[in-house]
C-alpha cells in the first residue's frame, strides 16, 4: 500500500473518509434552501417583481429536495439501514435531526406547491380526458372548488406555509453547517460561524440557480425575460455573494490572527494543497469576478441593455454556482486533509471518474433534479402566468394545456 | 367553511401518513432498545460472546509445563507465551491441539523489544545488533543471519544457564 | 426470576440469539430497575459458550455460569509512558484477538523524539505493529519516549453524542461500543473522535474501534493489550472497586489525559505524560 502522508498523522487518519458525495450533499441541500428563500421573497415579503420566478424557484427547491438524500445514501456503509435515522433518532446528534427537518420541510414545500398549483390542476383536469384526467383529478384530491373563497383560503395558507418554510429551510441548511461546525475534534470545522457560512452560501447558490433556470426556461418557452425581475435577482445575488465571501474570509482571518493551534496546519493547507480550489476558485475566480459583474449590473442599471444584463447575470450566476461548490469542497475535503494529530496531512483525495462515489455518479445525481423539473414542466407549467378564473390556456406553456 | 373541503382532505392524508409512520416505527425498533440508554441492550451480550483468543500464561501450562517453568525463573517471566508464539485460541480448543503453534526464530522477533532505541527506557536491556554481534565475535557483513540470537540465548531464559 | 429475566443467559457459543425475543420488555425493565437498587443483584450471566468456557478454565478464570453485572463496574485504563519499550506486542495481540483489519488500528504506539518542542519528531510506522526501526543519526531527540494509544472511552464522548442512530453507545460499565447491527456507516463518529481511535471497517462498512476487549473483561480477563504488555506499561482496572490498584493510582497520583482542553472525560489515564503529545 502506497501511503503518501507528510508529517505525522494518526495511523487511522491516513485516508480521507468523507468523499465527493458529502461535498454534493450540502451543495444540493443549499440549493434547496436558497431557491426556497427566493420564492419566499415573493410569497411572504411581497417582492412583487419576483413573481415570474416564484413558482419556478419553489418547484426547483422541491426538485433538489427530492434528491438531496441520494449522495448521503450512496456514501453510507449500509444505506439499507439509513431509515434507522428516523426509527431510532439520537437527538443529541445533529445528523439525526435531519430526518425530522427533512420530512417536515418536504411536507411544507409539497403542500405549498399543491396549493399554488391547485387552480391549474383543476383547470387541466376539466380540460383533459381519460388517464390524464384521472391523474389531475387525483392531484386535486377530487375537489374542483375554484371559488373566490377557496382561492383566498389557499393564498392565506400559502403565506403561512411560506413563513414556516423560511425558518425551516434555514434550519435544514443551517443544520448542515452545524453538522460540521459542532465537530470539536476538527478545529477547521469547529466554529459557530459555520452554519452562517453555509446558510449564506446556500442562499447565494439558490439565487444563482434560479437566475440560470429562469433564463433557460424563458429561452425554451420563447418568453421574454422580465427585466425588473432579473434586476431584482441580481441585486439579491450581489448582496448575498458579498456577505458569503465576507463571512468565509472572516473565519480564515480570525483563525490566522488568533494564531490558533489549527492555523499551524490550516494555514499551510490553504496556501498549499488547497491553494487552487481555495484561493484560485473560491476567492478570486468564484467571488471577485461575479461580484464585479453583478456590481456593474446593479450600479449601472440605466446603461445596460436587457440582453447585456441577462448575459452578465447568467455568467455571474454560473461562476457563483462553481464558487459555492468549491467552498463545499474546501470545507468538507479540506477539513479532512490534515490529521487530528495536528502534525501532518493525510493522503490527498482525487475522486475517480467511475468509482462508486466518483465524479460520474455525482454528476448523475446532480442532473436528476433538472430531469424532474423538465417532467414537472410537462404536467404543470413552471413559468408564472396571469390567468384569471376564466380557464384560458397559459401562453407560456401551451403544450400542457393542448395536450388533451 | 364550505370552501375548505380540499384542505381537510389533504390534512386527512397527512394524518394517515403520520399515524402510519408512528405505527410502522413501533415494529422496527429493536426490542431491547432503550432499556439502559439510547442503544440496543442486547448488543452487550453479543460483544461478550466474541471468542477469547489469548488465554494467558496459565492456559499454556497444562500442556507445556517445562518451558513454563523455565520462563518463570528467567528474565522473561513477565512476557506472556502468546506475545512471541501467538494466541492459544489458534492453537488449542477444549484442551485439544487444533493447529501447530508458530515459532518465530528470527532475530527480528528479539529486535521488537531489544533493538537499541533512543525512545526506550534507559534501564531496559537493549543492544545495537550490529555492534553486539561484532563484540561477540560474529562477522558483521551486510546481512544478519535470521537465527543468530538463538546461537547464544535460549529465548525462554535468555540470560540463564542455557545461555552462553 | 434469575433464569427467566436474565438477558445474558443461555447464549450458546458464538451464536447469539436475541434474548429479548422471549421476554416482554417490561419485565426486564423492571428487573433492571431492581438491579440498579441491588435487589436483582448479578442477573447478568456470563455469556460463555462451551469452547470459551474451556478456554477460560484453562486460563484459570471463573468458569461458565459466573455472573457479570455491567452496572457494578466502571473500567479504567492506565498507561505508564516511562515503562513502554515500544515493542508493539499490544498492537499485534489486539490485531489477533479482535481480527483488526490490516492498516487499521484499535491500539497503536507512537514514538516521540523531541529536540524542539514546537516541532517534535513523531512516527508510528504501521501503528508500531512491526516495531520501530533504529533512529537516524541526529534524530534521536534530547527527550524520547513511546506513547501507546487506545480509545479513551470518554465519559462525555463526542462520538456517541453525534451518532445519529444510537449505534455508538456507552455501556453501563463505561465502555464505548459500536452496535454493528445498527451502525449505518456514515462515518460521523470517525470525524468526531479527536484521538483518531475510530475507523470504518473496510469489509463490514461499519464504525469499528477498541472495545476494551469487552468479551474478556466481562469474564475477568485483562484486555489483550494489557495481557500482552511485557513491561506492565498498560494496566486495566475498575474504578468502582476501591481496592483496585489502578483505580487507587488514578485517585491518588498525578495523571494526565490526552487533549484535556476538549473536556471529553477520557477513561484512559497517562503517567509520565509530556506536553508535546497530541
Q: Can you summarize this structure?
A:
The complex is a heterotrimer of chains A (404), B (164) and C (278). Chain A has 404 residues and is mainly alpha-helical.
What do these coordinates show?
The complex is a heterotrimer of chains A (404), B (164) and C (278). Chain A has 404 residues and is mainly alpha-helical. Chain A has helices at 20-43, 54-67, 69-75, 84-87, 97-127, 130-139, 148-181, 193-221, 227-258, 263-271, 275-299, 306-332, 359-379, 398-402, and strands at 6-8, 343-345. In chain A, strands 1-2 form a two-stranded antiparallel sheet. The radius of gyration of chain A is 23 Å and the shape is globular. Residues 386-404 of chain A have low confidence and may be disordered. Chain B starts with a helix and ends in a 29-residue tail after the last helix. Chain B has 164 residues and is an all-alpha fold. A two-stranded antiparallel ribbon of chain B has the order 1-2. By secondary structure, chain C is an alpha+beta fold. Chain C has helices spanning 2-5, 25-37, 50-58, 89-98, 158-161, 188-192, 214-217, 224-228, 245-252; strands spanning 75-80, 107-114, 121-123, 143-150, 168-170, 176-178, 199-200, 207-208, 234-238, 268-271. In chain C, strand 7 and strand 8 (207-208) form a beta hairpin. Chain C starts with a helix and ends in a 7-residue tail after the last strand. The interface between B and C is large, with 58 and 78 residues.
